[in-house]
Amino acid sequence: MNKKWWHDKTAYQIYPKSFYDTNGDGIGDLKGIISKLDYLKDLGIDIIWLSPIYQSPFVDQGYDISDYYKIDESFGTMEDFDTLLAEAKKRNMYILMDLVINHCSDKHKWFQEALKNPEGEYGDYFYFRKGTNGNPPSNYRSYFGKSAWQQVEGTDYYYLHMFAKEQPDLNWENPKLLNELYTMINWWLEKGVAGFRIDAIINIKKDLTFQSLEPDGPDGLVSVWRMVENVDGVGKLLEDLKKNTFEKYQAFTVAEVFNMKKDELVEFIGENGHFSTMFDFSAHSLSMGEHGWYDSKPVQFMDFKKALFHSQQECQEVGFLANIIENHDEPRGVNRFLPDHAQNPAGAKMLGTISILLRGIPFLYQGQEIGMQNCPMDSIDDYDDISTHNEYLTALEAGLSKDEALKVCCLNSRDNARTPMQWDASANAGFTSQTPWLKVNPNYKDLNVKAQLADENSVLCYYKKLLALRKSPEYRELFTYGKFVPLFEDDPDLFAYERTLEGKTVTVLANFGRTAKTLTLAIGSEADILLNSQPQADIHNGQISLNSCQVIVTG
Predict the structure, then answer these.
(1) Is residue 256 annotated as a catalytic residue, yes or no?
(2) Are 495 and 366 in a shared domain?
(3) Which residues have C-beta within 8 Å of that of residue 374, sequence separation ≥ 6?
């Protein structure tokens, strides 16, 4: 494997709207990010991924872009962004933009021109099709519910939107559009961004016949991803994208990929793959309901373990995965992946350790390092997220009561991860001096950065030790390139594995169970304890005791 600059790096996702507000408008901004760069550097972060900061109407929180070349004024100015790039560079840190190129906003000038003449030049930047007898061209259901086709008022034309109706899909079969996109991407790379997180990219290839498929719900519609699964040819589009943009700049790219075919892993993230890496969603997929959030199931520990073990083993001879516990589209990992008895600081340390020491690129999400949790909401009106509102209605239509539907949202809403960052115990968690755009989790007075910085046993201080171990001169190569070897695969409580490289081995042991366990390991009594989440741990004659919710790293 050819070594790349990003192989040994640790990344951190910032959701700018909720990170830190410096001008008192209740919305986080670029100056707020700049002011926290030293905090992130001290934590052990190298790469910062920013969720979208482009000009946008914010129907889908910035994933509906109306101008790819402008910073939305709610976040600041392009001068602020240039300052962020310069300040990050001073600290040997890298900035990733969020690249949203499957669709744009219906307020983008391309789409506004397309509406004037769906059969004209800009009309072909999108997918306009005529309906039949007043019905949409096919029975696709969007990712956010309801038909994926929106009728153009006063005509028999419909346009495709796999997400919200305000997010029309872009036509990747159009060379003029592709040239526009490539030019824009290269413009940002020339400016100095290190690469991109690439949104929903598997969706760019469509079946241009747009044939209706067998319905998969009582509404007579079929999830649009089934069309995505059935179509071939996305690889050529992705390879052209890479060669015309990323490859020329040695850019780091991390793709959001669902519905990839089983034999395509090497094409996506192999030595000469389309992307540097892609997120491992194997564990996150375990909680997906067949029809929506209302029939999703809690994640079972053994399923969680098997999913991650499988991903690690499948990938390690191919390339690097991006390992995540949570992101802006998911509820908090402490609540999703830990059993009830472990949803506490001890569990947060354990969950962080097993993820960050896996083979691949660790991605932290803001607040993960202090163990932020899901935010209880009193009403559906407290939620901002478009997807949450759609899932609430879906749950009601399925027969759930309002209280039951709200509980479903409390468990699954994307807004769980979007509540403001909890900096201290002052008003609004120190995020803003005024009213925040989204409710602050009421646990902020006890769970915040300032308090944890002052407590050497806190989740935050533990994360700093964890990242320092991964990046230490003695173990950096092992944690970057070492082989992943699963241990205790059938044990119902243990998540354990080894990382090995050139005769050196590190063992990670985590007890997800309710009771202590004594383990016998193929290690001598001279093995060192490199990291321990609880005060006591002893190794005697190859035996080690683990308390409930304890994780130990030995080497």
Answers:
(1) yes
(2) no
(3) 331, 332, 335, 410, 411, 413, 416
Cβ contact 172:64 at 8 Å = no
Last residue of a domain, one of 430, 461, 492: 461
Choice among 21, 29, 169, 256 that is catalytic? 256
Q: pLDDT tens-digit profile of 501-544?
A: 999 999 999 999 999 999 887 755 567 899 999 987 777 777 88
CA atoms of 445 and 343, how far apart (whole Å): 18
Measured over the CA atoms of residue 333, residue 339, residue 342 and residue 347, the dihedral's sign is negative
Q: Is 199 a catalytic residue?
A: yes
Domain count, the chain: 2
197: containing domain: 11-102+175-205+224-376+414-461
For residue 268, the domain's CATH number is: 3.20.20.80
**pTM exceeding 0.85:** yes
Both 442 and 521 in one domain: the answer is no
**One domain, residues 449 and 368:** yes
Give CB contacts under 8 A, 24+ apart, made by 236-242.
237/172, 237/204, 237/205, 238/201, 238/204, 238/268, 238/274, 238/275, 239/274, 240/178, 241/182, 241/274, 242/274, 242/275
**Active-site position among 72, 199, 391, 415:** 199
